Amino acid sequence: MCALQSQNLLTKQLATLFPQDFIWGTATAAYQVEGAIHEDGRGPSIWDTFSATPGKTFQGDTGEIADDHYHRVADDVALMSRLGLDAYRFSISWSRIYPQGQGEMNEQGLAFYERLVDTLLEHNIKPFVTLYHWDLPQALEDKGGWTNRETAYAFADYAETVARRLGDRVAGWITLNEPWCAAYLGYGNGVHAPGVKDRQSAIQAAHHLLLAHGLAVPRVRAASKPGTQVGITLNFQPLYPADDRAETLRDLAIADEFSNRWFADPLFLGRYPEHYFEHMALHAPTVQEHDMEIISTPIDLLGVNCYSRSVIRGLPEVPLADATAHVVPVPSACYTEMAWEVYPNAIRDLLLRLHNDYHPQQLYVTENGAAFKDEWDGGDAVHDPRRVAFYQGYIAASAEALQAGVPLKGYFAWSLMDNFEWAEGYSKRFGMIYVDYQSQRRILKDSALWYAELLAAFHSQA
Ligand code: IFM
Questions:
Q1: How far is the CA of 290 from the centre of ligand 1 (A)?
Q2: Binning pLDDT at 50, 70 and 90, where does residue 4 land?
Q3: Which domains, and CATH codes, for the chain?
Q4: Model confidence pLDDT, tens digit, residues 393-418
């Protein structure tokens, strides 16, 4: 049993460490929570196809019903309001808006998100919208998906359509969520949709995802009210050396290119890490003239998803492309159900590093949270002390980054409620709110009550 313990820092004291304009929220994603996959004209996405393929997800779980958020959106927003959230980060299902990915637009899809945005605003909750959280329309995958350059242009058209409709009310746009996962897990090792196992395809898919982002930024900005923030969310895995041997430092640097710099360098520096493709034993992607300028179009915010860290020990004779295989366990550490080490200082170190290396105008933690085994006895409570301790530790570490000068503007917990955890199906619970999938009953876990207490303390300082 993990010895993760609540911190001594009082919730009230923690609240004082954040400036008055700091934004507190929670996050979800369309395919993970909505369900209603056949309703109101929605077209199929790659996750419908993938999860319906035997052997791809835990026990064949799919997002067909998920949290039934599509039908329960009013109640779910009421729960957000009860927690005192300033903001809610959700994603839009592209195939609800364009069932074929492009061409004919589905008005009912836009109407659903418009209702969600308006309900949030009625509760004084700012909408932060992710335009792509991995659920590519299947019709586009049938033409090559992200390995096809045309997908990037289709994305920019879709993004503009959504921005034209909601841009007068949305507080922040995130073009893509974790393109590293969409490219590498989707096309490289195939553990996510569309399940392609070809590392070279992942390199090209990554380039087109970056291009899609860069093409969309000016169009989304132009269609939104002045001052709306537009950016992207990346996943990062802070890496630490297990020792100071030369091969450890070499392998750590290469693993860092793969885990952290592959997307951040082109976005902020306009180039891929210098020997990255060589180190991966792969070819560089096909890059057209001006692509790198488009990709590095200035953005207003960088969304940071951080959950854990890895400790790397170099091996003398291992091919460099396998650098991430050198991760070593930390015997004294606590691990979540995802086998991710709980290491709060990772988020502080990461935020400082991103600030120093890339100077984004504003940073938001757009995801941070933990999966633990939660037990519900049918009553009104779910006790999750390890998740409470997790949040206390990571939020306190985020405050340290802020105090060291990082322009951190907000924090979104992952997740508002338990949901479909991709290939892991419903076996992993990340929510602050417990969902009983049989009855769709929602029960606030202790972590939700703790977060509400933090936010109440924060807001009472005003
Ligand atoms: O559930 C996912 C989310 O969709 C993307 N970031 C990581 C989360 C936990 O694995």
A1: 32
A2: confident
A3: 11-459 (3.20.20.80)
A4: 999 999 999 999 999 999 999 999 99
In the predicted structure, residue 5 carries a pLDDT above the cut 80 = no
Reported as a single tens digit per residue, the pLDDT across 290-329 is 999 999 999 999 999 999 999 999 988 776 677 677 899 9
3-state secondary structure 22-33: CEEEEECCHHHH
Give the Cα separation of 105 and 103 in Å (integer): 6
Distance between Cα 420 and ligand 1 center (Å): 9
Q: Does ligand 1 have an atom closer than 6 angstroms to the CB of 178?
A: yes
Residue with tokens 């026990």: 59
Q: Do the strands 87-91 and 327-328 form a parallel or antiparallel pair, or are they unpaired?
A: unpaired
Closest of 139, 161, 135, 157 to residue 148, by C-alpha: 139
> Quick check: CB of 412 below 6 Å from ligand 1?
no
- For residue 353, pLDDT beyond 90: yes
Cβ-based burial of 114 (10 A; exposed 0-12, middle 13-18, buried ≥19): middle
User: Ligand 1 centroid to 421 CA: how many Å?
Assistant: 7
Claim: this prediction has a pTM higher than 0.90: yes
29 lines ligand 1 (CB under 6 A): yes
Through-space distance between the first and last CA atoms of the chain, rounded to whole angstroms: 40
Does residue 366 have its Cβ closer than 6 Å to ligand 1? no
